[in-house]
Write a structure and sequence with these properties.
about 425 residues, alpha+beta, Aminopeptidase, Alpha-Beta Plaits, 2 domains, 10-stranded mixed beta sheet, globular, binds glyoxylic acid, binds manganese (II) ion
Amino acid sequence: MNDFEVHTSSGTKRPTHPLPQLEQVELKGMLDWLSAYGADAQGGVTRLLYDQAWCKAQHALAEKMQEKGLAPEFDQSGNLYGTLHGRGMGSGTGMEEAPIVTGSHIDTVVHGGKYDGAYGVVAGVLALEYLQKHFGAPKRTLEVVSLCEEEGSRFPFAYWGSRSITGVSGLEDVQHLKDQEGITFAQAIRDAGFGPNSSYRTASHTYGAFIELHIEQGQILERLGHSIGIVSDIVGQKRFSITVSGEANHAGTTPMSWRKDALAGAAEMITAVRNIALEAGEPLVATVGRITADPGVGNVVASRAVFSLDIRHIRQESIDRCWHNMLQEFSRIAAEQQLGLNWEEHLSVTPIPMNDQITSDIRDICEVEQLSYIHMPSGAGHDSQIFQPACPTAMIFVPSHDGISHNPLEYTAEEDLMKGFRVLVQLLYKYGYGS
Ligand code: GLV
Ligand code: MN
Ligand code: MN
């Protein structure tokens, strides 16, 4: 935490563009509206890529964009864009003239909350509506994007929305993947009405800049009492599926020392994950969030156990070293217990710093708006880390109550949502309408 650069605005600068009637923006109302798509009885939201709730939400958003005067358009991946066409003049920011884009993702984790991703999408739609209403057409085109997928919750592949836009990945990389029900990605995209045989344009798209407004999903802002987090770097991550193979046998007749118990081996490996991560120290984090066992019967020794592994740090060499140590330990445990071991890496993204120019423009806005802010790294992954190598990219965080996220209890007070919105509107005003 000592690494954070902490600032409280001096209050000496005056707003250059006072924003009329900002308090009338229906941010909270629209977030509640969107959360009804995929809502469950416990107050959570589950919208998985191309499932029914996801389809309904994305199409309802397209209608909202239409109502708000933002020409909506889908691409073949199911990303949805709302455009506020510019008058074609230079913005003077030095960025090339491709659109300035804001937004985030529409998908959620299973039983997630209503702010992760959705906040950036809803805020983007309302920011463009607001700007058009109060300032007319911008000089430079502004866009909001509702990215189809970021979480990797349905298929073992994350950031599909931003990866398909930037050309980092195409359908050929994902079409064979299967979800928990055995449905292939190729079938899911087709059933949702997208893919290469749909009437939509290809996903590839050029952005002049990408700006993502998001909840922090951690406790730093709330604990330190700041309104805005200006993201300095986004962590790198590796994600794996680890498969441990043993032998199914009778729970009553197989002596403990003669077993090849895949689940017992996996349990020891998971303990090793925790110990190695603790030993590496902060900010390294490693998580096993899912495990399945076969045959999954109470009186049968498990023949197979598969668990997920997610490792993150802001330095690539720390991630690599940690994985190396874990693999060594997994191999030792497998050999000792006569178990088979296999692993599949299905995500590897490097840590990435955000764009200096946009970051410093966000800082200036916080000063002008008298909002206290800090520069901080993001421990969560975001589409912004996929966009940053392709175009100047930055992120704005607002506090998450109690730091809870990926949970139905995820919550950000309306006042905090509005502060982030205010910064976003000012930034889009600067890039879209600046001289
Ligand atoms: C995405 O939300 C992630 O960081 O797992
Ligand atoms: Mn998330
Ligand atoms: Mn998110």
